[in-house]
Amino acid sequence: MTLSGDPLVRLAGLEISVRDAQGQDKIIVRDISLEVQPGEVLALIGESGSGKTTIALSMLGYTRGACRISGGTVEVAGHRLDGLPEARLRGLRGRVVSYVAQSAAAAFNPMLPIMRQVIEPALVHGLMTREVAEDKARGLFRALALPRPDTVGDRYPHQVSGGQLQRLMAAMALITDPALVIFDEPTTALDVTTQIEVLKAFKAVVRDLGTTAVYVSHDLAVVAQIADRICVLRDGMVQEQGRVEEILFLPRQDYTRALVAAAAARVPAAPMPDLPRDAGDPPLIQMRDVVAGYGGVDAQGNPQVRILGGVSFAIERGKVLGVIGESGSGKSTLARVVAGLHAPASGRVNLDGYTLEGEIRHRDKEQLRRIQLVFQNADTALNPAVSVGEAIGRPLTFFHALRGTDRKAEVVRLLDLVRLPAALAGRLPGELSGGQKQRVNLARALAARPDLLLCDEVTSALDPVVAEAVLDLLIDLRRELGLAYMFITHDIGIVRAIADEVMVLYGGVPVELASHEALEGPLHHPYTRLLMASVPELRPGWLEAANSAFSCGSSAGAGHAAGCRFFQRCAISRPGLCDVLDPAVHVGAGQTIACHLGFDGLQAAPRIAQGAIPA
Amino acid sequence: MIAKRVGGALLTLFLLSLVVFAMSLLMGGDAAEAMLGQNATPEALAGLRAAMHLDQPSWQRYLAWLGGLLRGDLGVSLITKLPVSTLLAPRLLASLQLAGLTAAVSVPLALFLGILAAVRRGSLLDRAISMATIGVVSVPEFVIATLMVLIFAVRLHWLPALSSSRDFSSLHDVVRVFTMPVLCLACVVMAQMIRMTRAAVCDALDSSYVEAARLKGVPPRRLVLGHALPNAIGPIVNAVALSLSVLLGGVIVIEVIFNYPGVARLMVDAVSTRDLPLIQTVAMIFSAAYLMLVTSADIVAILCNPRLRHR
Lengths: 615, 311
Ligand SMILES: Nc1ncnc2c1ncn2[C@@H]1O[C@H](COP(=O)(O)OP(=O)(O)O)[C@@H](O)[C@H]1O
Ligand code: SF4
Ligand SMILES: [Mg+2]
Fold this sequence. Notes:
The structure holds two protein chains of two kinds. In chain A, helix 7 crosses helix 20 and helix 14 crosses helix 15. Chain A is α/β, with parallel strands linked by helices. In chain A, a hairpin with a 2-residue loop joins strand 14 (346-351) and strand 15. Chains A and B meet through helix 2 and helix 4 of A and helix 9 and helix 10 of B. Iron/sulfur cluster is lined by residues 526, 564, 566-567, 570, 572-574, 578, 583, 595-597 of chain A.
């Protein structure tokens, strides 16, 4: 990148305000000044609501809803966009600047075939004929490593996966050879193993085409792979700007430091000492061969749609089982089975050695009290019309018959436990921040004084710095209260930090069960390897170095009648064996792996894998 | 999926035929008695009952009636002794003319106004349209009809108050006969269609894919017609079908008010004379028409939606 010459994008003193229902103007983005040089990739990073999208959209001369540019200037490729009439802007959008939205699944029109939408920018701007545009689109599909590039355009959006849609949207943005492409959190909604494929594809086209880009993200590690410079935003203002290395290694602002710290690999929590127990005591919770799904159950006890197939594990008192897997792998169903919200088709769940009823209404109050579920989305879990104090107080009355001042005192104690001020008791959920809501959600579960807390993606919806704090709280609580957790997440980093034992789910089947130590060891199921290798690291150049460990590219479906569910994605599979027989379970030190290769085979595998990885 | 819808509709129609038959059993009393009057001799009554198969168990009579319906034999009117089909044919044609003309006027106009209101959301025009639709919805059709008669027939003498004429020798005659009934019915059915169309198009216009299309530089007309409208088709055809089925009910009131010689008036007459075969047939025709509308709306919505089409 050259610093000489004119920048392609120049924002100077940009201010954007929104008019609320009372007609008052509120400034949401203020005094933004930044430049992007031709050929450069600038990342906008910050937590949700920090104004990233608003600023990015202003580079298309676009503001959402009741927002408007109320000050400063926006210049892109020599055009002043602020104040430009809509008709002139229309001529620039999609031709000079184009946009890749956060959720391609929502940004593609579900009614129209993909190809029509991809070539639409070229056609509405009259840049090329339909045939030329379609040829060019197929070329871009190929460059973006999309499977079946010649026919994928004939499909409808619902017929391709999220990761593919995101790449198709990039093709749509690139079809007109725009001067500037804006990527707005293009991989946030994807699984890590898919994200790495999409990132690689993006990086390759941006490099090959010499595209200038603005890349919006909340994930510093992702940004480190793709950007040349980073602009850190907070509350609608620029905190700090600099080259990637400067921001990562020499952050000047406190906020940037917190961001970098949250993104850096966590230091694992000190393991919990085993609680005293008699040798013969059963584990706190134990699941045996649980099969669960939807639809009717046939004679063999198999449901029509199988979500979980034969899951077994045990959690001792005060221990943490981490459950990881991609979206749709059955993690939440697992938690719901334990909680009694989803009756298993077969298999059993034992609490202290006693088998629990499948359905919650058949369980007794004491059993209900001992197992509490904390949901992913605190927004929907809390009734917006019920105050914080009441939400926490209800389980106190229900389980412990607390009323009046006793109940009030206990609510205050619980709020204190989750590090919230007592004054919050009178507030409604709508008045709280995301992190506060999740803490209230937690306090409500703790009110029952449970032995086991089922945490389903409790930090996923939170911004990194806030998520970090909630996670620290969970670790502390466990130490203070001796709680056991089943901690469900798609983030292997979190599991490493908090879990005593880890279960990796793929397609509803546990492919690996590993102790904390074994997880740090070298031998893993190919899918676990892929997961670990896909988590972006906080250093530039990681993406180039990362090979698709043990995976042969495209994320095919996991729907397999027999054999290993990972077969289609596994680079070291043994056709004729793996796709025919269910994998045997191999037990090692602190670790079980369900793979035909066994420990010895896997140890020998990396060498085999090298040759098997496609470009 | 489509086969399922059609099957469902046929099943519903079958169940309805049971209901219609059962209702006519309940309200019919004894048709033979009704025909012969109070002071008929028991022998005459018994003879007539046998002749009319009224002495058979009701399930046999139901099967005979259903079989007749399926073969196109609609039975004979008890009052006029004419075959029901002969009575019905001209009336049905007249009603279809009225309904068809109303649909032809109201559907395109309603869609146009609904889309216009959605595109110009919040403008004076949008507010005027929504005020007008709310106004019309809250006034029953007989009030509208009466007002129209008062204004156009009684005050201005532009149109006749009754539309019973079947003389369509010139366009002028056609306009004179149809203007008021069609306008009245259109008012009633359009309001709902406009509101639903506006809501569906507004929803689509607020979506991410329309924003994405706007950010591609797609011009407004194409944005609405090419991107928003295909997504609104499902709700719109359903609204159209529901509104047109409201038309079926509206036709009764309007035909009576304007003395228009259609099926609905035949039905009203049949009820007042307890002419069972006629009532049954008309009831079945109304039910079938309603089911056909709703089912075809479902089918159109399925065909237009690739997520449902490619399964
Ligand atoms: N249409 C809108 N109306 C009102 N407030 C808005 C609107 N769009 C964004 N905002 C506010 O502007 C701020 C920045 O939002 P956004 O740019 O979407 O942030 P980010 O992309 O970083 O998550 C937030 O506080 C958000 O609530
Ligand atoms: S069983 Fe075969 S396909 Fe499955 S993970 Fe092991 S080697 Fe790969
Ligand atoms: Mg955003």
